[in-house]
Specification:
The protein is of the alpha+beta class and 270 residues long. The protein folds into two domains: 4-125, MutM-like, N-terminal (N-terminal domain of MutM-like DNA repair proteins), CATH 3.20.190; 139-262, Helicase, Ruva Protein, domain 3, CATH 1.10.8. It is 27% helix and 21% strand. The chain has a four-stranded antiparallel beta sheet with strand order 1-6-7-5. It has a four-stranded antiparallel beta sheet with strand order 2-3-4-8. It has a two-stranded antiparallel ribbon with strand order 9-10. Strand 2 (51-57) and strand 3 (60-65) form a beta hairpin. Helix 4 packs across helix 7. Bound molecules: zinc ion (ZN).
Length: 270
């Protein structure tokens, strides 16, 4: 569930704690957390490494280290990085101690999150599509991407190889704000619709970052505080409710196996 705004918030709030700090202890409670390396080797390589900078790419957190390696984390459905939690519960999959005395716990109820330690970040994030909040992501960039895909626009928005960072809930919010039906084909959108879609994509994502992400399901900020973006949601996580604009009951449709929520009146089929 953590999408671009939640991962960006995690990055923004972890950075002041961790930038310039060394790993002094790495404790792995669940070896399946680590991709393609033994726990022993993973810990050995991280100890005493300093975090130079934390970046985000799509839904990935990228920790630049003093060595030639990069630590990459994907939170998947329920992962969260918590700073100095009051206690380490059974959802903790790893704990990292730092030279300033800070402890960061990787908590993950559904245990789908994953950590990579690689020499080149492109091995993990190289195939991701452009960042939607990057200044180079223009309406014409979006138009070029969508023109090549005869698939529902909802499926295009959540395909990480086309655009990075948008998941199920923000895609539904973006399409509602754009008044576009989730089943409309990506390559059939007009230039005007693409301009609106681009504008709403930036607006919805930036607004959710300003609200520190959406605390639906299990997401919490590193401090343990909640995000507030869900209070602006118009369709996501609101199934069974009515449209805030026209009072029509919201509907659900399955797009590529993902439940998509929309207003049949405000977002009519093309
Ligand atoms: Zn409506």
């Amino acid at each position: 569930m953590p999408e671009l705004p939640e991962v960006e918030t995690t990055k923004n709030e972890l950075s002041p704690w961790l930038r310039g700090q060394n790993f002094t202890q790495v404790i792995i409670f669940d070896p399946k957390l680590i991709f393609n390396a033994s726990v022993k080797e993973f810990c050995r390589q991280l100890i005493m490494q300093r975090i130079e900078k934390i970046n985000r790419r799509g839904k990935y957190l990228i920790f630049n280290l003093t060595s030639e390696q990069v630590l990459i984390m994907h939170l998947r459905m329920t992962g969260a990085l918590l700073v100095n939690p009051k206690r380490i519960d059974s959802y903790a999959r790893a704990a990292f101690n730092f030279s300033n005395g800070i402890q960061v716990v990787f908590s993950d109820r559904r245990r789908l999150g994953i950590l990579y330690l690689v020499r080149n970040a492109d091995a993990v994030v190289g195939k991701l599509g452009p960042e939607p909040l990057d200044k180079n992501f223009t309406p014409s960039t979006l138009a070029k991407i969508l023109k090549r895909h005869h698939i529902p626009i909802k499926a295009a928005l959540i395909d990480q190889n086309l655009i990075a960072g948008i998941g199920n809930m923000y895609a539904d919010e973006i399409l509602f704000a754009s008044r576009i039906n989730p089943l409309q084909k990506a390559d059939a959108l007009s230039i005007q619709e693409i301009q609106i879609l681009h504008h709403c994509t930036c607006k919805i994502l930036q607004s959710a970052i300003n609200d520190k992400g959406a605390s639906v399901d299990t997401y919490t900020r590193p401090s343990g505080h909640l995000g507030a973006a869900q209070s602006n949601f118009k369709v996501a996580h609101r199934y069974g409710e009515i449209c805030t604009i026209c009072s029509t009951p919201l509907q659900r449709v399955s797009v590529r196996g993902r439940g998509s929520y929309f207003c049949p009146h405000c977002q009519p089929p093309a």
